[in-house]
UniProtKB/TrEMBL annotation:
GO molecular function per UniProt: phosphoribosylanthranilate isomerase activity
Domain N-(5'phosphoribosyl) anthranilate isomerase (PRAI): 6-207
CDD domains membership: PRAI (cd00405)
Catalytic activity: N-(5-phospho-beta-D-ribosyl)anthranilate = 1-(2-carboxyphenylamino)-1-deoxy-D-ribulose 5-phosphate
Pfam families, A to Z: PRAI (PF00697)
Protein name: N-(5'-phosphoribosyl)anthranilate isomerase
InterPro entries cross-referenced by the UniProt entry: Aldolase_TIM, PRAI_dom, RibuloseP-bd_barrel, TrpF_fam
Cross-referenced NCBIfam families: PRK01222.1-1
HAMAP family: PRAI (MF_00135)
Involved pathway(s): Amino-acid biosynthesis; L-tryptophan biosynthesis; L-tryptophan from chorismate: step 3/5
EC number in record: 5.3.1.24
Native source species: Novosphingobium hassiacum
Length: 214
């Protein structure tokens, strides 16, 4: 099995970006969600994207954002893909994808087998499904909480779309996650931080090394 693609999400400083690039991460994620400790402004996103240009791909994360706001970010940060973490329906997601002309990743919160099966509804509307752990009721954030779901549930996925794994991944468990699930993309945020929104270069390096050694 070939090594999975790696995404370091919640990049919000040049230092964190440089660490991800040095560790050869395939993607970095910029969070456009005001409630998140990893949130970036349009100006910050544009500067980070310019620094990343040609060295890693940039994915923008949004939660129930307007199409106009997403379109502005796509242009400002020259996004290679957008990742939607809200309550978007397949129809709405398909329209967003058609209007913006960039690949769309749909994040699905997983707590049961039914959540995995639901991914099939997005065939033809999304380019990739990202399975993430379901946040507790009342949580302010849909992800980045360090929660892990039961990876055995992924056996229920029969969809045609490629998929990635998120939710509680860290340097300590990512190799096991890749071996057990066969994930072709792994996405980490809080698992390479020393505090919410504070990335650690050593943890990023360790995560990427572990993911590739699975």
């Amino acid at each position: 099995m070939s090594a999975p693609a790696i995404k370091i999400c919640g990049i919000n400083t040049p230092q964190a970006l440089d660490a991800a690039i040095a560790a050869r991460a395939d993607y970095i994620g910029l969070v456009f969600f005001a409630k998140s400790p990893r949130n970036v402004t349009m100006a910050q996103a544009a500067a980070l994207a310019e620094r990343a240009a040609g060295r890693t791909k940039v994915v923008g994360l949004f939660v129930d954002a307007s199409t106009d706001f997403i379109a502005e970010a796509v242009v400002a940060a020259k996004l290679d893909a957008i990742q939607l973490h809200g309550a978007e329906t397949p129809d709405a997601l398909g329209r967003t994808r058609a209007n913006l002309g960039v690949p769309v990743w749909k994040a699905l919160s997983v707590a049961s087998r039914d959540d995995i099966v639901r991914a099939q509804d997005f065939t033809g509307a999304a380019d990739l499904i990202l399975f993430d752990a379901k946040a507790p009721k009342g949580a302010n954030l849909p992800g980045g909480l360090g929660l892990v779901f039961d990876w055995n549930l992924l056996a229920a996925y029969r969809g045609a779309l490629p998929w990635g794994l998120a939710g509680g991944l860290s340097p300590d468990n990512v190799a096991d996650a890749v071996r057990r699930t066969g994930a072709t993309l792994v996405d980490v945020s809080s698992g390479v931080e020393t505090a919410p929104g504070v990335k650690d270069a050593g943890l990023i390096r360790s995560f990427c090394f572990a993911a590739r050694s699975a």
